[in-house]
Every structure is written in structure tokens, then in C-alpha cells.
Amino acid sequence: MALDTVLVTRVEGTAWIRTADGSKVAVKEGMRVPVNAEIITETGASVELEIPGSPSMTISDNRSFLVSGDIAETDVDPVAAALANPNDPAITAVLAALEAGDDPFSQLDPTAAVLTGGGEGGGSSFTRLVSIVETTRPLALEYPRPGVPTVENVRLGGYSGTGEEEAGPLVPPSVTVKINDDGTVTFTFTEVPFGFDIEDIEVTGGGRIEGLTPDNKDPKTWTGTLVPPPNYEGEITVKVPDGSYTNEVGTPGNGGEDTTTVDTLPPEAEITIDSITEDGVINKEESEGDVTITGTVGKDVKPGDKVTVTVGGKEYETTVNPDGKTWSVDVPGSELVNNDKVEAKVTTTDDAGNTTTATDEKPYDVDVTPPEAEITIDVIAGDDVVNKEESEG
């Protein structure tokens, strides 16, 4: 039967799939490995494969295993699979003895059990039977060969080596990561991804991805939102690691990443209000005209930033002067006379769009009652009469 992929049911240790460009992708449990992919196991590792219609297969450590399309071949031609009897007379005799129920070892040299001692020239006159033992490894059935590396290219199945056409190189899927100006992140895959979720995404520099969803019309496109940490200024990288997803047939995908500069650090601001009038008291004359309220700003506040002055719930707007340090606004004395404090705030915004507002307030007194006064004139000339002498003096 035709075979497209095999399922990895168990992984112990470290194993890899070699991709078309020679790079290696880690093998994970549940991954589907496509036909003609090469599985490589390191020392102490093993990989168990589930093959449709066939028993499971285990690849032991230090192996390089090529997944063949015919490892699940079940309709083998019985004629081709039949073993022909050997033509060697000695082998034929042994087979005949076995079929007849005889012991083929009864034909061994009779001196095998006789010891006559050495002759004049020394030596022995008996036949030695040396046990031939070859240990096998349960997983790989490898024969020990001291000093010889055990890494081999293995192809299972009915491959005859007669030059059958091989499939093209394994081309893994890939992804393009794009951090957009509005804070969203777009993940565009070359093939529909399998096994991709928010836990696969790495964010360095701080922050996280939220709301990861595929596009309803294009399942190769996924979108999430980058949530940076508060009060942060610097670079953030969003990365999809190699091998964190596969395509439909189980080929591990190549990763991708994008980096952006993030500024969530707000500017600093301060504002102060000067004394309301020179003496901090609104008098009757001042209450009947406009009073100029002044003040200063500092830190990151800049020329043109908006200043709002509030008196009794009414707002009066102005901006920071070109010197970037002072401001002023006229307020009707009729409003000031009915209140006892002035409130002011300034709002500034940095290049990244972060805003900060600083506030201040200044109390004052009101006195619009004129002082009382009186004057008297004493008696003129002592008798209220100016005589000739007094007129000439």
C-alpha cells in the first residue's frame, strides 16, 4: 500500500530529522515523518514509529534511518519472497539430516571427545569445539564491531537497489513573522501549520502575545497582539522556533522572527501656579476686571503643550509659552471672587504617543469690602471767624 508518512509514537533521548538544506529538526512525539526523510538518533536515544498495516518499528541510538515508502509493503509476491534451496552439498546434507530427525553434529570428528596427549613434538591430538557467540542489541539487532562506528544509512522495506526513482528533496514549510505598527503580529506560513499554538511563540525583551487566531479565509495566516510590558523602552523580538510546527504530512517547519522598538515609558511633567495677584488676595477692583494667572512648567513639558486652568468648575485653556517654561491665562475676577482656589494641569506627549498629565492648585483670599473712614475739621481760628489779622498772616 502507498505510504506518505509514519507516526512518531515515542522518543527517548535526542533524535533529529535532516532537512533538505542539511539542517536538523528535533523529533517530537506525535510528529508525522514524511517518506524519504532521514531520522538520526544520538547516543542513548531511540525513536518508535507506527507504520500503517505493519508492526511498530524502533530505531536505536547512533543510527541514520531513511524512511522508505515500501516499509509498509504487505502484498509481497510470494514467488519473489520464496527462499531457494542452496546448492552447497554440505548444507544440503545438514538440511536432509534435520528433516530426517537426525543429529547433524553426530558426524563430527570422533577425536572431539578423546584426549591422547601430546606427541614428541608437543601439541594436542584432539579437536577443539569453540562456541561462536554473537550478542545482539534488542532494539537494533546490531552485531558488535569493536572500533568500528555503528552509524549507518538504513533503508527498510523491499528496496532492491536497482535504481528506482527517488522522491525530490524534503522541502520544509516556513513562516514569516511581521510586527505591525498597530501592535498586531502576523504569522504567514507557506503551508497550513499543524501543532502551532501560542505556547510555541517566544517573546524576548519582555511582553507576551495574546489573542492568537488563524484567518477564517486563509488558514496559512495567523494573527496575535503583542502586549509589551509597562514603562518599557527598548527592542522586543517575536520568534517562532524551528520545528515548533509541521505541515499536513508531518514535515517540521522552519522558524521565523521579527524585531521592533517599543516605548511604553511615559514622559515626566510638572506645573506650578504663581501667587494669585501680588498679595494673594482678590480685592474689589480686581474682582471687577480680568486677573492674569501665571505659572511655570518643567521636566519633559515642551512649548505648545496644553495648560488648563479651572476655577469653580469652569475651564480656561492656554499653552506653554515658546520658552517652554512659563504660561499665563486671563480669568474673570467675577469668577475668582466666588471661589477660593485655582487648579491647573498640563499634558505632554512624547514621540511614541505616551502621555503624562501634571497638576497643581493655589489657594487665595477674597476681600471686596472697602475699609471704613471718617474725618473731622477743627474750629477755624479758634472762633470760626477769620479776622483782619488772621487774614494777613
From TrEMBL:
Q: What is the lineage of its organism?
A: Bacteria, Pseudomonadati, Pseudomonadota, Betaproteobacteria, Burkholderiales
Highest taxon in the source lineage: Bacteria
What positions does the domain Bacterial Ig-like occupy? 176-261
Which parts of the sequence are annotated with region: Disordered? 209-233, 348-371
Q: What is the organism of origin for this protein?
A: Alcaligenes phenolicus
According to UniProt, the name of this protein is Retention module-containing protein
Composition bias of kind Low complexity appears in 348-358
Q: Which InterPro entries match?
A: Big_12, Ig-like_fold, Ig-like_ice, LapA-like_RM
One Pfam assignment: Big_12
